[in-house]
Amino acid sequence: MAEAEAVSVEGWDFSWLAGRATEERPSWGYQRAMSERLAGASAALDLQTGGGEVLAGAAKLPPVMVATESWPPNVAKATALLHPLGAVVVADADEPPLPFADEAFDLVTSRHPVTVWWEEIARVLRPGGTYFSQQVGPASVFELVEYFLGPQPEHVRRGRHPEDARRAAEAAGLEVVDLRAESLRTEFFDIGAVIYFLRKVVWMVPGFTVAQYGDRLRELDAQIREEGPFVAQTTRFLIEARKG
Q1: How far apart (Å, rounded) are the C-alpha atoms in residues 104 and 112?
Q2: Is the pLDDT of residue 162 over 90?
Q3: Which of 81, 96, 106, 149 suits 60 as a labelling partner, its CA being 20 to 30 A distant?
Q4: Predicted model pTM
């Protein structure tokens, strides 16, 4: 517990969890599919790029490649990683409007966006352009959330539902051409992994501290030692929408 409480949780690198936790990956292979689309684009925008790690893994970037990010440490990290590859990183507050002209891009991508401004995505896409995104689905890892917070109301559990994304995309004038969802197995092998995860993903248990939840953490530690990994279900969905 002390080790996980002390380790840095800056950035969006989860390598500290190696050997401590596992998360099953979606079958569609977002990074590979994104890379294929980028290779055929002329101008692309990656929204909420984080540290730029996913975008940097693309085999080929288009002639015009822009990424946005709101968190200053990630802006610096993404700039250092993506500028050598020919991509420009723009610091953006993740509130409309996007700092780009109408019909500026033929492809917009985003992996695990916190918010999705559908009208702005539709505005910056060229006719025939595509939005391609993997997003966190409803009640993701809620087994862990509810262990600490108790049962959550249905409207909270249903948040980020893929059908809501479909309706929002269509309301913005986009045609949804692909929508897939999967529930994936996640395992926490020790209490340190749980603490690190909740310190890093701060919206799961708002205000989480080891001091506040010490008793509950010790109970979970004993449970993991006796029964094995704590298992939760991560939900993800893939959405692809086209501008007519």
Answers
A1: 22
A2: yes
A3: 96
A4: 0.92
